[in-house]
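ARCHIVE CARD
Drawer: 12
Card no.: 0347
Subject: one protein chain, sequence and derived structure
Cross-reference: see card 0346
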Amino acid sequence: MQLIDTHVHVNFDVFQPDLEAVRSRWQQAGVVHLVHSCVEPSEFSSIQALAHRFPEISFAVGLHPLDAEKWNEQTADEIVSLASSDSKVVAIGETGLDFYKADNYEQQRKVFETQLAIAAEVNLPVIIHCREAASDVRKMLQKWKNLKGESVRGVMHCWGGSPEETQWFVDLDFYISFSGTVTFKNAKKIQESAAMVRSDRLLIETDCPFLSPVPKRGERRNEPAYVRYVAEQVARVRGETTEAIATLTTQNACKLFGLTI
């Protein structure tokens, strides 16, 4: 059984003491590829180094909405330059909107819009972080499509929206990625969303080191090997086998990110 973890942050300090052991565990768990997301440009060099150290890692470049204030006139150039020069860059992001932890709404929208334009320019998908902002993200994606006459493709990562909100983004042909939150006991809304996503738009992730899934919920550090538990839970809520979900989500990840496994 092969799995792809479509959203990791293994460059974080919490992984540095034993990263080789963490890698051994994800290999043993059947994780054949990882897409490493990015929070801000200061991470570019460390993430790029990891991607070239481990053949099974591809990566994204971008600026997280909670770091929108760090955007400057050089940021766009840095993102475009790396995305255009390194074949291991497979996405722009993570970008998006977070109105749960920050209220700099217009600044976030401006930075998100700019990164959508970059994604279109370099022909890469976007990894979207969306928290308490589904309506705004939807409007911006619809506006972009209508004004530009071209679609921006991508994934709603670590998805926590309602089934209605989920359908909004499936209708925009976005992929929906579920993390360890789908395993949480009271996550009924997320489980309902996981059950109804169109098969060709379903993805899984850990978002490690955050959000350890059940049965590893008590562990402070999540890791890529645990994406198997996400696959198992998604399989349960959809009435399918874990093997079927693994095959499906691996195929979907390869299609979205242009991966060859």
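Annotation on reverse: The CA atoms of residues 59 and 103 lie 28 Å apart. Strands lie at 3-8, 31-36, 57-61, 89-98, 126-131, 154-156, 175-178, 202-204.
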